[in-house]
Design brief:
The protein has 291 residues and is of the alpha+beta class. Helices cover 42% and strands 12% of the residues. It has helices at 24-54, 67-72, 106-122, 126-129, 136-153, 163-168, 178-182, 205-208, 236-259, 274-280; strands at 2-8, 11-18, 89-91, 102-104, 189-193, 196-197, 215-222. The strands form two sheets. Strands 2-1-7-5-6 form a five-stranded mixed sheet. A two-stranded antiparallel ribbon has the order 3-4. Helix 1 runs antiparallel to helix 3, helix 1 runs parallel beside helix 5 and helix 3 (106-122) runs antiparallel to helix 5. It is elongated, with a radius of gyration of 35 Å. It starts with a strand and ends in an 11-residue tail after the last helix.
Length: 291
């Protein structure tokens, strides 16, 4: 199996195994599906962590309003009385005003946060360091665990306007949001390797050969971005280590130059004719003052 180390920019994403006979169009779909699903997990975990801290979302028309303003505008909330966490709730005011503040108890909140932590770890770039390949089954399994954790805490379900429910139902609107810029639709997905774009209509072996033990580093990006920027020959950590080593050697050479002093040659003990002078009795002959 060909192993692809997928990156976006300089950031590692995950490892993926496939065959050299796979059409590039199919490969692009598989990689983009996994990549976008991992982004979905990140967004879902972010919202579930807010759910664990502040409870369900307020109705859309009540977001950002105080309780007094909601009362004055006569905004009704039929979901808050229905969506009480199993095991009861504790009040924790949401200063942003997006959520009601009726949070789950600490024990149930831990169920949500721990599931989120496990899901992020299972789909993080650390899997590259651990030499673990990513599959769509792994990603879907983590999504199912997140959905199950939400069902444990809220067995009656969440309001249809809650962002957690939107993500689980694939109805979230990413228009104008920063998260939407990260998503790469399959039809706009590009894959680059060795400064070449892997074109649809071809097979992987036309670029990397037919050796199934090949390992490549490829970059995924959205169409229209041009060729990815080449990575530096050495990473920042290696470059800093090289500079530190060069500085250390430079200081050592300076010390050696300072120690290379030949003034000792003028000392009496360094005179090569000292022994001869002593034997002939001329060692201590000096000149008096000239008159």
């Amino acid at each position: 199996m060909v192993r692809i180390h997928l990156k976006r920019g300089d950031a590692s994403l995950f490892l993926y195994e496939t065959t050299t006979n796979i059409p590039i169009a199919d490969l692009l779909k598989e990689l983009s599906d996994i990549y976008n699903a991992i982004l979905k997990i990140r967004r879902l975990c972010s919202e579930i962590e807010m759910l664990a801290e502040f409870g369900i979302a307020k109705p859309t028309e009540a977001v950002g309003l105080t309780d007094e303003q909601i009362s004055e505008l006569k905004i009704t909330d039929e979901w808050t009385p229905r969506c009480v966490p199993s095991g009861g709730s504790t009040f924790n005011r949401d200063d942003i005003g997006r959520r009601t503040g009726n949070a789950p108890t600490a024990k149930l909140a831990e169920v949500l946060t721990k599931t989120c932590a496990d899901a992020k770890k299972a789909t993080s770039k650390d899997t590259v360091l651990a030499n673990q390949c990513m599959t769509m089954d792994i990603v879907n399994d983590e999504l199912d665990k997140l959905k199950g954790a939400v069902m444990i805490v809220y067995p009656m379900g969440l309001p249809p306007y809650d962002e957690v429910q939107h993500i689980l139902n694939d109805t979230e609107d990413l228009t104008g949001r920063e998260e939407g810029k990260l998503v790469i639709p399959t039809e706009e997905c590009q894959l680059w390797w060795a400064n070449k774009e892997l074109m649809r209509g071809k097979h992987l072996h036309e670029y990397v050969g037919k050796n199934e033990k090949t390992k490549i580093v490829a970059k995924i990006q959205r169409r229209g971005g041009g060729a990815p920027v080449r990575e530096p020959v050495v990473d920042d950590a290696t470059q800093k280590a090289m500079m530190a080593f060069a500085y250390k050697k430079q200081e050592e050479l300076k010390k050696l130059e300072e120690a290379d002093d030949d003034s000792y040659l003028n000392a009496a003990w360094a005179n090569p004719n000292a022994l001869k002078g002593r034997l002939q009795g001329t060692g201590n002959i000096g000149f008096g003052k000239l008159r």
